[in-house]
Amino acid sequence: MTQNDNEYSAKAAGTDAAQAEGRDPRLVKAGELMNQGDIDGARKLWREMAEAEDTRAEGLHGLGLADLAAGNLDGALERLEEAAALKPESAAFLNNLAAAQMRGKLLYPAKNTLSRALELDRNYAEAWANLGFVMLSLGDDFGEIDLILNRALSLRPGHLGALEHLAELRRRQNRHQERAIILKALAEAKTPRTALFLRQAAESCLTFGDFAAAEPLLAQAVSVDANNADLARLHAEVLGALGRTAAAKDELRRGASLTSGQESWRWAHLGFAPRCFENAEGVDGYRQWLSDQLEEAAAE
Q1: How many CA atoms lie within 13 A of 294 on its CB side?
Q2: Which of 8, 139, 176, 258 has its CA 20 to 30 Å from the CA of residue 286?
Q3: How far apart are alpha carbons 238 and 293 in whole angstroms?
């Protein structure tokens, strides 16, 4: 998940809420269907529940989550607001309403909604993580945000949303070494965004000049996302900066061959090499010159 998208948080909270209710097996079944990507199947079960008075709140809540997953923000807000009004004692309903508000950039209402959720349940990690995100988006006090995100992590160690928001906070605080550590922890979770987290960790290392630490992170990122031309280009630049000219050349050529690569990369700079090249012969000639210089130095 990105810093301005709480899809992961909304989905996870919705599933937890469905399982926690436990009064109707359709809740658990609908949650399973949502996790499998069968939104229509889940919607059918929740619609049945919404039509019955005793399960109307749960049904509307589920339909709101389905709308949120399908990108129907207006429908999600309407149903989640009604569900929260019908069941004001549910911190999970309020948290998911806040997730919809966040998606709609309604940050101040989301902050108020999350505060209400936490008044009901002070140990609700998802709500603490979402509150940290909202406050970060609003530019609130960094110290307070830090406490809130660490509260979420104390309640649920390894919470992905809280970790990602904390990484963004560290970036804004220029605490790049700490940010790199957090991003490496996120990468270890093996999510679909592992390559992105590895790249961001490497970029944090580059911010404080640690090319040696950045290179293996970029190598890992490339192994996960081998078709990312821009990632290959960055990896090549770091290889060049470390003096690994041949590897840099190979990586630049590989990147140039990818769909989004650029032909000019084949002849572009090799790390901190003092010149650019117009063609492959120029690159090869430069490498030969370097080799001759090294041989001469060794002979002396």
Answers
A1: 7
A2: 258
A3: 23
What is the token pair recorded at 13? 């909270």
Whole-number Å distance between alpha carbons of 205 and 49: 51
Rounded distance between C-alpha atoms, residue 82 and residue 237, angstroms: 54
**pLDDT value of position 6:** 39
Determine the Cα–Cα distance for residues 234 and 280; give it in Å rounded to an integer: 20
- pLDDT score for 267: 57
Cα-based distances in Å from 105 to 5, 11, 138: 10, 18, 10
In the predicted model, residues of the chain with pLDDT beneath 50 are 1-22, 270-274
Q: Give me the pLDDT at residue 271, please.
A: 45
DSSP 215-282: HHHHHHHHHH-TT-HHHHHHHHHHHHHTT-HHHHHHHHHHHHHSTT--GGGGGS--TT-SS--SSHHH
Query: pLDDT tens digits for 207-223?
Result: 999 999 999 999 999 99
Asked if 48 contacts 158 with a C-beta cutoff of 8 angstroms, the reply is: no
Torsion angle, alpha carbons of 113, 183, 259, 281, to 10: 150
Q: In whole angstroms, what is the distance from residue 235 CA to residue 215 CA?
A: 7
Q: Amino acid letter at 169?
A: L
Residues of the chain above pLDDT 70, percent: 85
Distance CA 298, CA 296 (A): 5
Query: 82-120: per-residue pLDDT in tens?
Result: 999 999 999 999 999 999 999 999 999 999 999 999 999
Tell which residue, 64, 8, 85, 70, has the closest CA to residue 38. 70
CA distance 218 to 52: 54
Round to whole Å and give the CA distance between 175 and 167: 9
